Amino acid sequence: MTVRRPWRSAEQATLLDDLRAGRPPTLICTDLARTPDDVHRRITSLLGEGPTAAHAGDVADLDLLWLRLRGAHVAPTAPTPAAVAAMWQSMSGVALSPAHQDELARDPAIPGLAAAGRHALLVSGRQVLDATGLLDLDEWRRAATALAAPADPGPARRGAAWTAAARRLLTAVVDDIAPDAPRRALRTHLSLDGPGGHPTRVDHPLRRAAVVEVSRAAGVAGRPAAILRDVLVEPRAVELLVTSLGPSFAAATTLAMFGGRHETEALRVAGRVTSPWRRPPDLGRGAVVRTRVG
Q1: Of 157, 254, 160, which is closest to residue 213 (Cα–Cα)?
Q2: Which top-rank group of organisms is this from (predicted)?
Q3: How far apart are CA 154 and CA 264, in angstroms?
Q4: What values do phi and psi take at 275, rounded to 5?
């Protein structure tokens, strides 16, 4: 039985950057020191397609997947106004003249749609079409905004609004768990049932079962867990969210795993984001430091 090396958050970030840049598949494998089969499986997982049928696992398989990503515009990139207009045509089945395409791209609703991201646009567009039979831009924007992951404005501009949006998304992820006992255990563990609380110790098997349920849900496009996974791929996002819940190593570990990390890597991330000694203090030359373990 082949033992696969777990994906670290930095590797996943490199994979996404390479996909956005259109880097050829062979070079992506070289960048990551991964086999084509490993990269193929990770990409299909990120797309929410889950395990695929057995394939040859050679570069040809990855080439086909890469071409589909580039051609269908499903890679996680921020769409341009023209790309949003093209998505509207493709999903609604309405062919526009070049002049009308330009007019659609300049519609006031388009910037809000573009900000939601491709994943949210594809999923919410299908939802609006199924519900109304039309793809009205304002309805599409409202649906996409509700589904979209909270945008990260960067280290200098993260604040209460981003954290509140991330907490709402986390609550949606937990509420999306079907089994009642793991769902209640996870809500208690993350202190989602009341403001100002602190993460609480819960039964470990129930907590593990809840994490498994969230991991399964993250493999389905459109589920809140799939969106949260992309948000929590950055350790800084894990730190912000766990700080809002109440500093807790256990909760940070859980959130890090929600970001698609293996348990060992999640423990490392949790240690970094909850430790007060993330940066060594400047104590001056000759200072004697005594530490207490336990």
Answers
A1: 254
A2: Bacteria
A3: 27
A4: -80, 135
User: What sign does the dihedral 11-17-21-22 (CA atoms) show?
Assistant: positive
pLDDT given at position 156: 44
CB distance 36 to 62 below 8 Å: yes
Let me know: does 224 contact 173? Beta carbons within 8 Å. Answer: yes
108 pLDDT above the threshold of 60? yes
CA distances from 110 to 96, 127, 134, 140, 150 (A): 16, 18, 16, 10, 18
CB 107 within 8 A of CB 135: no
Q: For residue 39, what are the contacts with CB-CB under 8 A and spacing of at least 6?
A: 15, 25, 28, 29, 32, 62
Give per-residue pLDDT as tens, 229-277: 877 877 888 888 888 887 688 888 888 888 888 888 888 888 887 766 5
Strands (E), 77-205: none
Do 248 and 199 form a contact (C-beta atoms < 8 A)? yes
Answer whether 0.70 is exceeded by the pTM.
no
In angstroms, the CA 39 to CA 25 distance is 9
Calpha distance 26→293 (Å, rounded): 47
